[in-house]
Amino acid sequence: MNYTTQMDAAKKGIITNEMKIVAEKENMDVEILRSKIAEGTVVIPANKNHKALSAEGVGEGLKTKINVNLGISKDCCNTEIEMEKVKTALDMKAEAIMDLSCYGKTAQFRKDLIEMSPAMIGTVPMYDAVGFYDKELNEITSEEFLKVVEKHAEDGVDFVTIHAGINRETAKVFKRNPRIMNIVSRGGSLLYAWMELTGNENPFYEHYDKLLDICEKYDLTLSLGDACRPGCLEDATDASQIKELMTLGELTLKAWERNVQVMIEGPGHMAINEIAANMLLQKRLCHNAPFYVLGPLVTDIAPGYDHITSAIGGAIAASNGADFLCYVTPAEHLRLPNLDDMKEGIIASKIAAHAADIAKGIKGARDWDNQMARARQELNWEKMFEAAIDPEKARRYRKESTPEHDNSCTMCGKMCSVRNMNKVMQGKNINILRNDD
């Protein structure tokens, strides 16, 4: 039986090869997975032209996935450095990479990335449009914006961020409700500016059916972007954010009618006490489509440490229903991240995702922690390193401060509670002052 997209196959009762791969990774019955894809609560971003892909699922009942942003810009246009980041992100088991390149040989970098990456690849075609046509923003036509999307789809991109919800109606709400940070989404701000400069409707909203034609042709997953996401705590959960979210819910239903898979992108900055309610609101307004969040960052005062503010928010968001976390690095708001920044961002995001999976009761999530706990109880350092989310750093810290006895560390020495409890439980004496073990 023929099918056009993963959702089309799922609705027809077809189990695709990608579904089998994801079901095995998630330790889930493939028929349950198929039904979730048919309902739209799970997506498998898998462009027909991405031959190197090892499929991943995003959505309800699955492990929380993380995305790594990278790519070249006018100020930092070294593709070799960015490709080194790609390889490191893959080594660190990131499930997705977004190429946000906006300058220079974007097409070649994107093609090289897709050709070698088993991780799913996302892009924001809007970023590429100005450089692709070598035109000023207001000179680009609606048709040309759509052609860039099709070029990315043809190249093999698995999902694209499209800011279709920032239409003229949403723009009116934005103008009536002033914000501190206005519109912080790069793609959203460009589209808002284009609408203001040309007087035209958002091309991705006005020609949404044509966009769906492209998505259906290549099985390109739509990640409906949040142009009006809050850029500071004060702007969170305001009229602009909610108005756009309502529009995204309407666009989700239209996409599902065409069997196009959809994810919804969520807030960027938000106080801790608002996160759970926002997750519930998004799932309700967008019909339980998978939710993809940047952070949210839970305070605005920590430049240089925003991988931490993001991980706090990400863990709370995912434990309350978010399915996909976009990593944030210590360089957020400051500069393009380097390789070390990227590593720190990935680890912080993976910690948040795993903590949320434990809270959500994802099958097997707690087993990893129990493995570490048993290794600690045994004072088996090698097993601890093997279970660590960052074995390299754990080994380095241990090596930098060597204790007198192997069955302790330099924090507690022979007063180690684990060491002493093991001895007592075995009926042995405890020696703290004597030199013998």
In which range does the helix fraction lie?
40-55%
Number of strands: 10
Task: Report the mean per-residue pLDDT as an integer.
Answer: 95
Query: What would you say the CATH architecture of the largest domain is?
Result: Alpha-Beta Barrel
| CATH class descriptor of the largest domain | Alpha Beta
Portion in strands: 5-15%
Per DSSP, the total helix count is: 19
Indicate the radius of gyration in whole angstroms: 24 Å
Taking strands numbered 1, 2, ... along the chain, how are they ordered across the largest sheet? Answer: 3-4-5-6-7-8-9-10
Written description of the protein model:
By secondary structure, this protein is α/β, with parallel strands linked by helices. It has 3 domains: 44-360, Radical SAM ThiC family, central domain (TIM Barrel, Alpha-Beta Barrel); 366-400, no CATH class; 405-437, no CATH class. It has 19 helices and 10 strands. The strands form 2 sheets. An 8-stranded parallel barrel has the order 3-4-5-6-7-8-9-10, surrounded by 7 helices. Helix 16 runs antiparallel to helix 17. The mean pLDDT is 95.
What attributes characterize this protein structure?
TIM Barrel, eight-stranded parallel barrel, two-stranded antiparallel ribbon, 19 helices
